[in-house]
Amino acid sequence: MKMTDIEKRVGDFCLRIPELQLESGCIHGLIGGNGCGKTTLAKLMMGILTPDSGRIDREGLNEREITMTTQRPYLMHTSVYENLVYPLKLRGKKPREADVRPWLTRCGLWEKKDQYAGSLSGGERQKLSMIRAMIFKPKLIIVDETLSNLDPDSVELFEQWIREIQAQAAVTWVMISHQLSHICRMCDQIHFLSQGELAASGPARELLKNCGDERLKAFLERESLDLNVRGRKVD
Ligand SMILES: Nc1ncnc2c1ncn2[C@@H]1O[C@H](COP(=O)(O)OP(=O)(O)OP(=O)(O)O)[C@@H](O)[C@H]1O
């Protein structure tokens, strides 16, 4: 996906992206402080919002091939199982139990398959939202703080799962997270927003090792990111 000369106002806030290229098949990290515009940018990528000016080239992706998960996922007022089969049915598939069971089993939700989805805990809702996004094999998955309520073992489970999906299918991911260790472990490219501006963008290794941008440097320092101890080792 390529974004060029984007401007988007929401209330008093303005997002400006002169140019952003999301290389296909990569894991992208979208970082920045609260209110800097990450979710607004994600909604533009999804097509939920339209820019006031500028161009978004989705390079042939149609809306059914893009999905987004959020911190407080919207779930249908049905069972866990029905929530999971819905995206498959929507795409004309007739899912059998055998298609769904491994996904629920792996994240520990199979025993809760008949439970009303609205009664799940915050972390369980996020797990269901993640597998609901992954199960229909979209080409672009935007993960907006969806792993924030998960315990460390569950975060590790999903990180491993995402790596396995990448090895098979090379999906494009956009990970929005305040957990920088997670971003460092997972992302090939990082895009840093500061007060509505794209302040830095590039390969994760380069950006985290030699970030030329003072705002990114200050952001990383504030987040107390010790790159050689936590997350990915930068040599
Ligand atoms: N519909 C809206 N009306 C008015 N202001 C909005 C609207 N949507 C977003 N904003 C404002 O736009 C700014 C950017 O919001 P956005 O949700 O994109 O930030 P974010 O980087 O995702 O933040 P966080 O890390 O806190 O989730 C915020 O100041 C927010 O208050």
From TrEMBL:
Q: Does the keyword Ribonucleoprotein apply?
A: no
Keywords of this protein's UniProt record, alphabetized?
Answer: ATP-binding, Nucleotide-binding, Transport
Instruction: Kindly give the Pfam families that the UniProt entry links to this protein.
Output: ABC_tran (PF00005)
Domain named ABC transporter is located at: 1-220
Entry's Gene Ontology molecular function annotations: ATP binding; ATP hydrolysis activity
Q: Which PANTHER family match?
A: ABC TRANSPORTER ATP-BINDING PROTEIN ALBC-RELATED
Q: What is this protein called?
A: ABC transporter ATP-binding protein
Name its species.
Diplocloster agilis
